[in-house]
Write a structure and sequence with these properties.
alpha+beta; 4-stranded antiparallel sheet; 23% helix
């Protein structure tokens, strides 16, 4: 293979065919990804006559888009195994190693991964990176305030010093030393905070550069190996709440000089959580109007330890390769997508969890109906964060702003409400419509499921009412859904509910063994009724809009693809 170069330029101007050595402009050149040969158009047919091995001839600018099989070197990888997360050839697909696995086309895999990379790149460039720059710009102002405050206090102290002369010289020195020490601690803290932010900004810049490189490559192995780091960056640094020292002079009394001279208030530095840059990982970056595939399909079947005796109720996820589950026993279990049990956690009280939700930080929250508590699991440590009086918690979900929404029943079973908690403190209560009527059905042990939509609507699956009740962020009723127009009254039996990046609402109808999909205004769009679902109960959607369905009795969690 030879390349002619214009000595005045560093880029390729002319390529030379490896068969006939004819110079070919890059725009007209062809390339065999398998043989690593440059070809002119007339020589393509001649090259393909060599049947001793496979060929993949593509335009020059598409070179590198073909992956050779690592096990069968003469074969091209045309498929991607979702269970093994690797490109494979047709021969691999028929081997024992991949029996029962799901395969998708390599081109589709490349497009899906590049869409994820593009989304991450856009989020970094448009949201996360500017936020870090904004935060970093505040620190010099805080340093200036620190300096100004220090000068102001020093002047006040020195003025008082002149009045007290020699009698207070020792006190003056001591107080200046205290101030300098506090300034030093404050400045050291600010410098440390600034350095941490600068390091993160540097990491973000590097990630942006890496993502741009990935978008410009057709190397499927590199692209499919990409793992998003945006979840780490999405969590902003804490906001400093600084209470600067102040000086309080007192009337001079030589007999009580130490008591009357005054004092510096202690330096106070507190951190306040900022939350996140965006409402949802895909809220701004996911393309809207994603198209449904004609036939939704089960991508992965995960067999859990649950079953008919220990029914599987709930499923929740935050990262794309792990799911939390809970059922009729006291354990909450994490499974990977290979169906392996990663870990299990027992509830603090020994009761079964009523509902589970994974927070933006990746911690698990669960409600305990009998103990009247909401609890958070960090690693394997459990902390009770909410304890109710006169109410019992049922459904729970984590919101885009990292609040908790909890459905709860009154002790007498006559009322139900939704309560928003921010920082585990009650922030909002939703119970009545504009006419003062109850929004939700009553009754003890009346399980309800809850999810926040992309537009911040609050969606509740009310099983006893056989309805979906949707209110806006302020708690005003938007609509109630009882099934599509053709549904017989009372036959709709909603259970689990979730929402996706398109603002669509997905509901499990356990009696009819299907999933209803609505738009954010409550219009029925379609069913998922072809995936052999049996008593679908719990639902959740990951960041790629893959649907996970927990089946009540079969002990299975099914991962379903329903978008193109």
């Amino acid at each position: 293979m030879s390349i002619s170069m214009d000595p005045r330029r560093s880029d390729q101007d002319v390529l030379r065919c490896d068969l006939c050595e004819t110079p070919v402009p890059p725009t007209e050149c062809m390339y065999c990804d398998i043989c690593d040969n440059y070809l002119c158009s007339p020589c393509v047919g001649k090259h393909l006559l060599d049947v001793s091995k496979e060929h993949k001839v593509v335009p020059f600018e598409k070179r590198g888009s073909t992956t050779k099989c690592q096990k069968h070197f003469s074969k091209i990888c045309e498929l991607f195994c979702e269970q093994c997360n690797i490109p494979i050839c047709v021969k691999c697909a028929s081997s024992k190693e991949h029996i029962g696995h799901e395969f998708i086309d390599m081109v589709e895999t490349l497009e899906n991964q590049k869409e994820i990379i593009l989304n991450d790149l856009q989020e970094l460039e448009k949201s996360i990176y500017p936020k870090y720059q904004e935060i970093a710009s505040i620190i010099p102002v805080q340093k200036a305030d620190l300096n100004e405050n220090s000068k102001k206090l020093t002047k006040a102290i020195e003025k008082h010093e002149e009045n007290l002369r020699r009698e207070i010289d020792t006190i003056i020195k001591k107080m200046k030393s205290d101030l300098d020490e506090m300034d030093s601690k404050h400045l050291a803290f600010l410098n440390k905070h600034e350095n941490e932010i600068k390091r993160t900004i540097s990491d973000i810049k590097q990630s942006i550069a890496d993502l741009k490189k990935l978008l410009n490559t057709n190397d499927v192995s590199l692209v499919s190996a990409y793992k998003s780091r945006n979840a780490k960056f999405r969590r902003l640094p804490p906001k400093l709440k600084v209470k600067l020292p102040s000086f309080t002079p007192k009337k001079i009394n030589k007999e009580h000089i130490y008591q009357q001279f005054g004092s510096l208030s202690a330096l106070s530095i507190k951190t306040e959580e900022r939350g996140y840059t965006t409402d949802y990982p895909a809220a701004e970056s996911s393309p809207l109007n994603r198209q449904f595939i004609d036939e939704p399909r089960v991508v992965i079947d995960i067999n859990t330890e649950f079953g008919r005796a220990n029914r599987l109720f709930r499923v929740s996820c935050q990262i794309d390769d792990e799911i939390w589950t809970c059922g009729n026993d006291r354990k909450m279990r994490v499974y990977n997508l290979q169906g392996e049990l990663a870990k299990s956690v027992q509830t603090k009280s020994g009761n079964r969890p009523e509902d589970i939700a994974v927070t933006r930080r990746g911690d698990l929250v669960y409600t305990d109906y009998n103990e009247r508590t909401a609890n958070i699991v960090k690693n394997t440590q459990i902390q009770t964060v909410i304890r109710l009086q006169g109410w019992r918690p049922s459904g729970v979900c984590n919101t885009s702003s990292d609040d908790l929404l909890i459905v709860m029943d009154s002790e007498d079973g006559k009322q139900t409400k939704v309560v928003r908690y921010s920082g585990f403190a009650e922030k909002q209560s939703i119970q009545f419509n504009a006419q003062g009527q109850l929004l939700y059905s009553d009754g003890l042990f009346n399980s309800k499921y809850i999810s926040e939509n992309r537009n911040l609507d609050i969606c509740v699956s009310d099983c006893y009412a056989r309805a979906i009740v949707v209110v806006n962020q302020a708690g005003k009723l938007r609509f109630t859904y009882t099934g599509p127009p053709s549904t017989t009254k009372g036959s709709f039996n909603p259970r689990g509910i979730t929402t996706d990046s398109q603002g669509r609402i997905l509901i499990a109808d356990s009696d009819h063994h299907n999933i209803h999909i609505l738009d954010q205004d409550g219009q029925f769009l379609r069913y998922i009724d072809n995936c052999h679902l049996q008593k679908p109960w719990g639902l959740c959607v990951d960041t790629r809009d893959s649907l996970f369905v927990a089946e009540l009795y079969t002990r299975k969690v099914k991962k379903i693809q329903y978008y193109k």
